[in-house]
Specification:
The protein has 692 residues and is an alpha+beta fold. 60% of the residues lie in helices and 12% in strands. Strand 1 and strand 2 form a beta hairpin.
Length: 692
C-alpha cells in the first residue's frame, strides 16, 4: 500500500515539474533567469520519475537517485542565486561572487563526493540509516541553505515588487522546509520515516502552481533586488549558528554512543555547554564587529552601505540618552567599530579644550588653536592614524603631536570637525574591536561625518547662546517695565509737588495729596515685592473691578483735569492680578490726562455688556490719527512723549489679551480718544447674573 502511494506521489510530482519546464521553455525570453528555472524543473522531474520507478520495483535507493536529488537542490539554489544577483562581479550593489559561491559550490561538491563514497544512503526496505553523517547532515545543510536563499530573496525585494515573487518563495521554500523536516526526523530517529518520505512527492507537486504563478508575473525575472549588509549579516550568523548546532549534535551523539554508562550524562552536559558557548559568542560585541568587517571587506565592493550608515549616523546624533557631545563620539565611533573616544572643541580662550568622553578615561589637555597640530587639522582636514603616524611621521608632514595625545589609552584616530572651512574641534577614537584599515573610503566617510557632526555641535552652541540672549532680553524687558512704572510714579509725584505750592492751604487738596503719596508708596512696595520674587508668576484671582477703578481715579485726583468716574454696576467681578490690572488702568487714565488740556474732560465708565465687563476711558484731548493707531500705538518703544518709554499701551494690550479680553481704541485728531477694555466676567459672576 505504501509503495503504491509513493509511486503515485512521485509520478504526480514528475509530471507537474515536466509540464512546468515545457511551458517555461516555450516562453523563454533569452535571459539567464529564463533558462535556470526550466533546468531546475527538469532536474526535479527526472528526480521524481526515478524515485517513482524505484518505488514500483521496491528497489533500494541508488547512487543515481542521490546525485539527482543533489542536482535538484543545486538547480533551485542556482535559480535563487541568479535572482539575488550573487553571480555578478562588477555591480557594487551586490556581494562579490567568490566567497559566497565558493562556500555554496563546496557544499554541493562535498555532498556529491559523500554520495559516491556511501553508494546509496537509504535502504528503503529496512528503513535503516546508512552513513547518516555523510548524507543526512549534507541534506540538512542543503535544506538550510535553500531556506536562507529564499529568505534573502523575499526580504531584499522591494515591497512593491514582492507580489511577483512571493508565490515562488513560498513554493521553493516549502520544498526545502519539507526536506529539512524529513532529514531532521531521520537524524533524530536514525531512519527515514516511510510515510513522510512517501508524501514528499505530493508536496513537491503542490508547489508547482505557486512557481508557475510567479513565472507568469515575472517573464524575465528582473525585480531589481539589492542585498542588504544587515540581512546578509543576520543570514550568515544564522547559517553559522545552524552549522554549529548540527556539529555539536553529531558530537553529542558520538559521546552518547561511545560513553558507556556516562554517555547520556556526557551528552547532556556537552550539549548544554555548547549552547551556552554559542550564546556567549552571539552576544559578543567583538565577534559581531569582526563579522561586519569581514562581510563588508570580502562580500562587497565598498565597505559601507551608505544609506544605512547615514541613517544610523543621523539617528544617533538626534536621539539618545547621552548629551550631544557623547552622541557625536558614538556616531563617529560606530563607523569604524571603535568602542569609545573623546571630544575636543575650540573655545574663545584660543584653545581646543576637552569637552566630554565616551567609554574612554578622561584624559588630555588644552591644545592651542595656533599650534602646528591644530593648523594641520584645519588646513589639511586629514584623519590622522596614530599607528601609521608612529611608523611613518613624514606622511603627515612630520607635524608634532600634542604631548598629551600619546598618553590617551588606546588612542587610534584623530577626526577633525570642520565648520565653514575652519577647525571647530576634533574627536580622538579608540582602537576598534576588530582591525579596520584606514583607506580612502573610511577616511572620506569620517571627514564627511565629522563635518556633519560639527554642524550639529555648532547649532547646539548657537541654541544655547540664543537661550542666554533670551534670558537677558527677558531681564531687560522686565527692567524696562519697572522703569516705566517708576516713571509714572515720578510723574505723578512731580505733578503733586507742582500743585502743592498753589493749593497747600486747601484742606481737600491736602487730603488728596496724603492719599496720593500713600498710594504711590504702596505701589513702590508692591513693585519691590515683585522684583524680589520675579520667578513666581502673577496669579490671577477674582476681584471687583470697581474698587480698582476707584483707587486708580483717586491716585489721579490731584491732576488736572481731574478724572470723573461712572460705575454703572459695582458688583462686576473679573479674574485678574490686582497690581497688573491696576497698572493697566492707571496707565490709560494717565495717558488720557496728559493728552487733555486743563479745561478738558476725562471720563472713566464701568458697565456690563452680556458676559463681559467694559471699562471705557474717554478724553477730549488732541486725539490720534488712524495711521498712528495702526502703525505706532501698539508698537513697543515708540512714543510721542519726550520722556516716554513707548511700552505702556503695548503692555496693557498684552495683559488684557492674556486675560482673554481685548483692548479697543477709537480716535480722531482734535476730537479726543476712547480706550475700551473688554474683559470676560468671572464665572461665579456669570452664574449670579443668570440666577438673578
Amino acid at each position: 500500500m505504501l509503495t503504491s502511494i509513493a509511486t503515485a506521489s512521485y509520478s504526480i510530482a514528475a509530471v507537474a515539474h515536466f509540464a512546468l519546464a515545457v511551458l517555461l521553455l516555450t516562453s523563454w525570453r533569452g535571459r539567464l533567469h529564463g533558462i535556470v528555472l526550466p533546468v531546475a524543473c527538469l532536474l526535479s522531474a527526472l528526480w521524481a520519475a526515478l524515485l517513482a520507478s524505484r518505488a514500483i520495483h521496491d528497489l533500494a535507493l541508488s547512487l543515481l537517485t542521490d546525485v539527482l536529488e543533489i542536482l535538484r537542490n543545486a538547480g533551485w539554489s542556482a535559480f535563487l542565486i541568479t535572482l539575488l544577483g550573487l553571480y555578478r562581479r562588477e555591480n557594487s550593489s551586490f556581494p562579490k561572487m567568490s566567497p559566497v559561491m565558493a562556500a555554496i559550490v563546496a557544499l554541493y561538491v562535498g555532498c556529491i563526493i559523500a554520495a559516491f563514497y556511501s553508494h546509496g544512503n537509504f535502504d528503503f526496505s529496512s528503513h535503516e540509516t546508512i552513513d547518516f553523517i555523510n548524507n543526512i547532515v549534507g541534506s540538512l545543510a542543503m535544506a538550510i541553505l535553500g531556506m536562507i536563499l529564499v529568505e534573502q530573496l523575499y526580504r531584499n525585494t522591494p515591497v512593491k515588487q514582492r507580489w511577483g515573487i512571493k508565490f515562488a518563495c513560498l513554493g521553493i521554500g516549502a520544498i526545502f522546509a519539507y526536506d529539512f523536516f524529513l532529514y531532521s526526523d531521520a537524524l533524530l530517529l536514525r531512519q527515514v520515516n516511510p510515510e513522510i518520505w512517501a508524501a514528499r512527492g505530493i508536496v513537491n507537486a503542490l508547489v508547482v502552481p505557486l512557481i508557475a504563478v510567479s513565472a507568469a508575473r515575472n517573464p524575465q525575472w528582473s525585480v531589481g533586488i539589492t542585498v542588504s549588509r544587515r540581512i546578509l549579516f543576520y543570514s550568515v550568523a544564522l547559517f553559522g549558528a545552524a552549522a554549529y548546532l548540527l556539529t555539536m549534535a553529531a558530537a553529542g551523539y558520538y559521546l552518547r554512543f561511545f560513553g558507556g554508562g556516562w554517555g547520556t550524562v556526557m551528552q547532556v552536559s556537552f550539549l548544554f555547554g555548547a549552547v551556552i558557548l554559542l550564546l556567549v559568542v552571539l552576544f559578543s560585541g567583538t565577534l559581531r564587529s569582526w563579522l561586519r568587517v569581514f562581510i563588508s571587506k570580502h562580500f562587497f565592493s565598498y565597505n559601507y552601505d551608505y544609506r544605512e550608515e547615514w541613517l544610523h549616523f543621523t539617528r544617533t546624533l538626534s536621539e539618545g540618552e547621552h548629551g550631544l557631545g557623547e552622541r557625536v563620539i558614538q556616531a563617529l565611533a560606530q563607523l569604524v567599530e571603535s568602542p569609545g573616544g573623546g571630544l575636543w572643541l575650540c573655545r574663545e580662550s584660543g584653545n581646543c579644550e576637552p569637552v566630554t568622553h565616551w567609554n574612554m578615561p578622561s584624559a588630555g589637555g588644552l591644545e592651542p588653536l595656533d599650534s602646528p597640530f591644530c593648523l594641520f587639522l584645519g588646513n589639511r582636514e586629514w584623519v590622522i592614524d596614530l599607528q601609521e603616524y608612529a611608523a611613518n611621521p613624514e606622511k603627515y608632514s612630520g607635524v608634532p603631536l600634542p604631548q598629551w595625545l600619546p598618553h590617551i589609552y588606546r588612542a587610534w584616530l584623530v577626526v577633525p570637525l570642520i565648520q565653514h572651512r575652519k577647525l571647530f574641534g576634533f574627536v580622538v577614537l579608540a582602537e576598534p574591536r576588530s582591525r579596520v584599515k584606514l583607506n580612502w573610503e573610511v577616511s572620506d566617510l569620517l571627514k564627511v561625518a565629522g563635518n556633519q557632526a560639527a554642524s550639529y555641535l555648532a547649532q547646539h552652541e548657537a541654541a544655547n547662546a540664543l537661550m542666554v540672549a533670551r534670558q537677558f532680553e527677558s531681564f531687560n524687558r522686565m527692567s524696562t517695565f519697572v522703569v516705566h512704572d517708576l516713571k509714572n510714579l515720578v510723574s505723578q509725584l512731580s505733578l503733586l509737588l507742582s500743585n502743592a505750592e498753589k493749593h497747600k492751604t486747601n484742606p481737600e487738596f491736602q487730603r488728596d495729596m496724603v492719599e496720593t503719596v500713600y498710594l504711590s508708596v504702596q505701589k513702590m512696595k508692591r513693585l519691590l515685592e515683585k522684583l524680589s520674587s520675579s520667578d513666581s508668576p502673577d496669579k490671577a484671582v477674582p476681584l471687583v473691578i470697581a474698587r480698582l477703578l476707584q483707587e486708580a481715579v483717586k491716585s489721579k485726583s490731584v491732576a488736572e483735569p481731574k478724572p470723573l468716574l461712572d460705575i454703572q454696576d459695582s458688583s462686576i467681578t473679573v479674574c485678574a492680578n490686582s497690581s497688573r490690572l491696576e497698572r493697566v488702568l492707571g496707565h490709560l487714565i494717565q495717558n488720557a490726562i496728559e493728552a487733555t488740556s486743563r479745561n478738558g474732560q476725562v471720563q472713566v465708565r464701568l458697565k456690563r455688556e452680556q458676559e463681559f465687563a467694559i471699562v471705557e476711558i474717554k478724553d477730549t484731548g488732541h486725539g490720534m490719527s488712524e495711521e498712528f493707531i495702526r502703525e505706532k500705538l501698539f508698537k513697543p518703544f515708540e512714543s510721542t512723549k519726550s520722556a516716554g518709554m513707548g511700552i505702556g499701551v503695548f503692555e496693557s494690550r498684552e495683559y488684557v489679551s492674556e486675560l482673554g479680553g481685548k483692548l479697543e481704541v477709537s480716535s480722531s485728531e482734535s476730537n479726543g480718544t476712547v480706550f475700551r477694555i473688554v474683559l470676560p466676567l468671572h464665572q461665579a459672576d456669570q452664574v449670579f447674573k443668570a440666577v438673578t
